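Long-time lurker. I teach an intro course on protein structure, and each term I like to show students one example going from raw sequence to a predicted 3D structure in token notation. This year I'd like something fresh instead of my usual example. Would anyone be willing to generate the tokens for the chain below so I can use it in lecture? Attribution to the forum is fine with me.
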Amino acid sequence: MALQSSDIILVERGGTLYRETYGNRANIESSDLILVDRGGTLYKCTYANWANANSSDLILVERSSTLYKETKANWPTTSNTDIHSANYMVTLGTLLYGQTKNNTNAFSVVEVQAEFSSSGTPSEGTLYIGFRNSASTAYMGDLPIAAVQILRSNGSTIVDTWNFAESAGYGDWATTDSSQGETGVITNSSTIPSDFQYYAIGTTASSGKRRFSFTDSGVGSNHVGAAQGIPLSVYPNSAASSSVLPVGTANISQSTTSSDGYIFSECSSTSNGNLTWMGMSGLTTLNNGDRIRICYFGGGNGNTSNNGLQTTNSLYLRYVED
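-- Reply from a regular --
Happy to contribute to a lecture. Here you go:
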């Protein structure tokens, strides 16, 4: 069970007991004591030494008046990233330049361990992923995205996987589309994405600019694009799958199946700084500390680093509660 911001922890300070929420744990001082259970034996541990406790050590936590024990392993070592108060820019790993178009280089995976709500109990909402064309030569800014996966805080339990190799993956998502008229051209990366109009993701890149589209035949422009997505047989669209996307650079091989495509936002005839958003609505089971992993193509991102896609100002996340 992942810790939530509203969970309550019993703390002792100078002989006085008080209760502090997990979300406000920054208020706990290094000399404060917390009660710990190790192998059935109780002991008091200073908050400063909690970081060195065994991963199986337990602390007593109260959630909605119910007491339970939580392991040290489920206490994140870093703060969760707030993606509900503002759009969050994700930094990509190493990108490659000067590659042939639609090449067979491997995909990469980036992760954000997220805070979805300040209350600790997110309501139903929509997860948005934004692409911003950061290439100075605009048509070289394409960023193929092969899959999105949400994991629990332990990094091993899959909440859901969307492999964009097939419509069962990308069909759950909707995209902004400047060709429709209502949305226009999006240039402000801080504007809340729920302000825009969304449409079904199309099956060809020619169905509109500044929109996400599916392709299983590459993107067409020189120096950019992957030949295929990642194997649907290995990373299926199923929460029951045991195939976790591993975080890393160029660490997931492309699929050799011709029908396994990916989605991307066509950048020809666009400008540097133009944005495209896609959203997945109706999410109800997300907890603070859950991990979002995005499988993107860092294997061909422009002719050179000067005119191609950049590792910053290219990918964004936002969660908006209904």
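Some talking points for your students: Helices lie at 47-50, 167-170. The longest strand covers residues 107-115.
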